[in-house]
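Same chain as my last thread, 159 residues:
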Amino acid sequence: GFYNEWSGMGCAQTPQTQCGFPPEMSRRRWTILLRLRAELGPLSSPWVHTPPFVVDRNTTLGPPKVNSVSVSPDSLLISLSPPFTPEPGEPLQYLVSYWENSSSPTVKKLNQSKTLFQIENLKESTLYCFSVQVQLKIYSGHLLQGEQSAPECHRTALS
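reply #2:
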């Protein structure tokens, strides 16, 4: 049910224009309503309410971190870390876009759940670029798409 009681977020009377969520508010499926007002000495504005916020649905997923890239003549082996720790059984997928760094690149995509993966069938001694993002399927069947990592380019080895 709805509670008519407002809880503080630990950042009342602050000059800051932002405020972090307390950990207990990051329950994934809760619908959270926030309210705020401006105060100046004894004056205060009316309360304004935010649209409902659901962590699962309204959070922006950052890009995964690229830990290392190993090159061989025909492949790149890429090691990633997720942008957050997934809960057990959470189907976090990595979507990898890669292309040959040429004048008319064709982007190819790979989708997989492992943090270590190989982009195969590449030409030797050729510069390839890639970018990675995460996809998370949440309980409602809704697919959350994360932000893309900045493109990184590596030259395959000479055989």
